[in-house]
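Friendly challenge for the regulars: who can give me the structure tokens for this chain first? No prize, just bragging rights.
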Amino acid sequence: MNITPKILSASVLVLLSSTQLCKAENFVATVTLEGITKSLTFDTFGAAIDAASHPEQYKDLFPGVNSTVGAVGTLDFKGVPIEFNKISADTVTIKIPNIDVNETITIDNAANLSDKAINKQISTKVSDLIRSNNASINKELALVDSADPLGGNPSSIMGIMVENAYLLGTNDDWDTGASKKSSTENRFDGGARYGHYSLQGKAVDSLTFPFSYTFKMNDRQQLIVSVPFTYLNTQNAASYDGGAGFAYKHRITDHWVLTPAVAYGFRGSFDLADVGHIASGTITSKYTFDLDSLDPNSYKLSIGNMAGYYTTLPYAVDGYSVDPNLESYIFKNGLILSKNVSNNFLGKTLNVAANFTDTEYFGSPFFVDQYNELGVSVKTFNDNHWFSAFGFNANYLFSATGKNVEGYRIGLTYQF
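First reply, four minutes later:
Bragging rights claimed.
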């Protein structure tokens, strides 16, 4: 068997092309053949597929080698190793130690098949093996990967949905204390949030557009429909989030606002071959104290408490039904200290606030399951103007668990 184009297509990159459902940031494969060890690194799934389609470009890495028999190696998916050993032209062993998988793949009637046909059958069998263990692999990835796309860290789809739900429940017409009676006109809210995170050495940038429309039933009850969208860049690989949510906001008393909500979110990435979707149910409470007096311009201290249940949903890919089966009970609690510092700032009231939040995940284990945020915000508002509010906010994020997790987020918001 000639080494071109067999080494990568029949060993390492067979695995790369068959593990599409694993969540990966960088694709790294280490191959040893006849005493020569080489590492191959790919930033995106597309680059890995290109390498699998054109393995001849790597033949110079193994000079003088004429056969792939005896090739051993490891494919590293963000801490989950997939080991292989090509015992013969038609037999490969696959091991995934983290989930106790140890399989030998042998092609029947190989003597009557071409090398191309053998490689194709090996690829299919490896694909079946990986997909049949997809749920276990996803659980392991969530545990070992600091930037897991589904859950835990602030850049995951769960993390972004948690942030959207908390802000939806703690930002309202009454948060500035300007009046006890808000406008009953419907309202559109928009904005943009940029986040940059360093998660145990992995860099993630996110850009979120949290659009929503509020139907005001009366001066104390509102129905809110939200349609957020997020773009992410993880180690030079792009991902996209979308979804929809529905919330009911009720001002129980002049000081207490309660917001139950349901939401759906999905994530997809051509670069990482990521796919997944999540459903959630949350309830957010916000209680505001007048620290000085009943004057709407006095200092206000608000306590925000959110509890939510988040679970991944099954999905089908190429005829396979996949259920990551990740779920979490998430609690986000915070304090907001605010004050109206001017009643005539460009014709609007100017409000300044400082906030602190703590986010905790319970349920399926995640590599990042806790983080805190410190932030400030500035908001102008005027209920009688068509452009009723405009705001700026900035937050610094860190983890109290001792893991190297930090980042920042800045955002702009507006209402009309």
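Residues 231 and 240 are 5 Å apart (CA to CA). Residues 115-132 form the longest helix (18 residues). Your move, everyone else.
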